[in-house]
Amino acid sequence: MLELKQVSKSYYKVDNALNCVSLTIGQGEIVGLFGENGAGKTTLIKSILGLLRFKGEITLDGAPIDRKNIGRLSFATSEHSFFPNLTARDHRDFYQQQFDTFSDKRFSGLMEFFALPWDKALRSFSTGQKNQFEVILALSQGADYIFMDEPFAGNDVFNREDFYKVLLGILEPHETVLLSTHLIEEVSAFISRAVLIRKGEIIGDVSAIDLEETGITLMDYIKKTYHYRPDRVSRALETLGGEEEGV
Asked: How far is C-alpha 192 from the chain's CA centre?
């Protein structure tokens, strides 16, 4: 179990990027992490991975996350964490050496699914291909907790839809996915839980089963929790129209 207790993070000139966040994530969940730009999604993930200093406590099965257990976590980021001058085959060999849990079968299968070249340097990949390869590495490492931060940028809708189906088909019961994305409607059908963050605070946490029982869609739940104003577009157009008329 991954547990966060009163986790806070501030940056220079940015207070409360995370503000006393407490969250528990069990194994076998597929969690969608949703929030507007700057809400704290990436900061939350990077704090869990130990990439940022923070206040509070983050534990994995009761133990702090350090070199002993960090291999149980993997990360696919649109910022890219691979070696650009190495090939996909080189990365496969490197990961096999670093992680005893690495799955060559899953790696090869996903390489075939995305039709990625084995022997070209990663720097020559398109943006979409680079993001696909990030996901392949994260899923093949053999981690119990797989974090994905906007992993589908640059990918067409067909690749995304097919990948969701493949993801559900290959995940083992103990594998947990935490997916941060703005593609809410696309992922609503396969996540088991939705966590909403705003201004560094968790403002919503609901299971897909509870949403289904109440008959509320994920998008409607997010809009309600975020106090979305449906008149914001018309008000903006009125204001902009008024400015143009006054010119």
From this structure: 14
The one-letter code for the residue type at 206 is V
pTM of the predicted structure, to 2 decimals = 0.88
- Structural domain of 48: 2-246
**What's the number of domains the chain is made of?**
1
Task: List pLDDT tens digits, range 72-127.
Answer: 999 998 788 889 999 999 999 999 999 999 999 999 999 999 999 999 999 999 98
Angle, alpha carbons 111-113-119 (nearest 5°): 30
145-149: strand order across its sheet: 73-77, 145-149, 176-180, 30-34, 193-198, 201-207
The two tokens of residue 100 are: 């005893």
Alpha helix positions (H), the chain: 41-48, 88-98, 104-114, 127-140, 157-170, 184-187, 208-214, 218-225, 232-246
Query: What is the CATH classification number for the domain harbouring 85?
Result: 3.40.50.300
Q: 23-66, pLDDT tens digit by residue?
A: 999 999 999 999 998 899 999 999 999 999 999 999 999 999 99
Nearest to 27 by CA among 174, 177, 170: 174
Handedness of CA 196, 202, 204, 205 (dihedral sign): positive
